[in-house]
Amino acid sequence: MNNAQExxxxxxxxxxxxxxxxxxxxxxxxxxxxxxxxPFLAAGYLSPESLRADIADLQGYxxxxxxLPFGVNLFVPDPQGSRCDVEAYSDxxxxxxEVSGVSPELVPAEPIWSDDAFEEKxxxxxxxxxxxxxxxxxxxxxxxxxxxxxxxKLVIFYATSRPGIDAIVxxxxxxxxxxxxNAGGHRATVFxxxxxxxxxxxxxxxxxxGISCKPIIAGGGVSGAADVRNLLRAGATGVxxxxxxxxxxxxxxxxxxxxxxxxxxxxxxxxxxxxxxxxARAIENxxxxxxxxxxxxxxxQLHFLTxxxxxxxxxRGDAENLNLWAGTGFVHAKEEPAAxxxxxxxxxxx
Length: 350
Ligand SMILES: Cc1cc2nc3c(=O)[nH]c(=O)nc-3n(C[C@H](O)[C@H](O)[C@H](O)COP(=O)(O)O)c2cc1C
Known about the structure:
Elements lengths: L3 H7 L3 E3 L9 H9 L3 E5 L5 H16 L7 E5 L10 H15 L17 H9 L5 E5 L5 H9 L3 E6 L2 H8 L5 E5 L5 E2 L14 H11 L4 E4 L5 H10 L3 E4 L13 H9 L5 E4 L7 E4 L2 H6 L9 H16 L21 H9 L4
Parallel strand pairs: 1-2, 1-9, 2-3, 3-4, 4-5, 5-6, 6-8, 8-9
Antiparallel strand pairs: 7-11, 10-11
Helix pairs in contact: 2-3, 3-5, 4-12, 7-8
Bound molecules: flavin mononucleotide.
């Protein structure tokens, strides 16, 4: 299927962003689908078995509600990603130990690389009932897009800039995903394609609308119904929202992250590589303040470097050493049922 009108029938004005690392759960996705949104599950960091279980759970919930559409998001391994300067890694590790004060056993001495089991997860998603498959961090090879299409699913690539949008227009993707500069979590920047410009999400949507008829989903920093309305008016078919759902009752957000969203309202968000090596927007804390400038851009090696200390920080309730992913609208993330959040955001649509 590649007809824009047919695709738009499956899209929804509200899209629940995939949120890897815990927040995305089948219950959250089902609640948002039930309220009229299009939910995405996050495959990133999950084992293939957990992804299979999450998809099965969501399919189970949705069958009861007349088979609503959903999507799954995959992290694409960077072909250059296994390159890591061991000396720079060791220097950064020493800084991390100094700043966090954690025990050295929690921080791997050697860089770890993984392709996030991309092939296995792709196979699982292709065999699932998902209508959409979105790809983050890189564009997969054309053969991958063909496989997803052959499985009867639609493909979404993300861009953070005009050159990134141009590349999607020229690609086999069916939908243009746009992530604005205020978005929480990892920037979906495709290295070597997106540039460093910081255009607003509205400007990027207008640009994409002007050059392509492909449907657009866009988001980043949405703080309420007015932002949804503005993005739809600018030409988006769906508005992708993540942060406002982080405190939803059905989300799997870590307890220390939840507490920070509630208590750190007076803090700014910053874009930092300190936790994973890739730029991501988070509520500023001691870790990012001390390490953002020295973090080398090795992903996923830095993700694994900080994984143990982040886990421990969450357990200890230490928000200063945790990756507090959040978009600029985070003060509006309230603890309530996801359906209430979705309905409030969708009220803008009528
Ligand atoms: C906790 C968290 C985890 C995220 N994980 C993913 C992910 O796995 N894949 C992805 O494409 N985007 C991810 N994102 C980015 C979202 O797709 C989306 O761009 C962002 O949530 C939109 O901005 P907002 O958070 O301000 O609403 C994540 C965002 C957050 C806050």
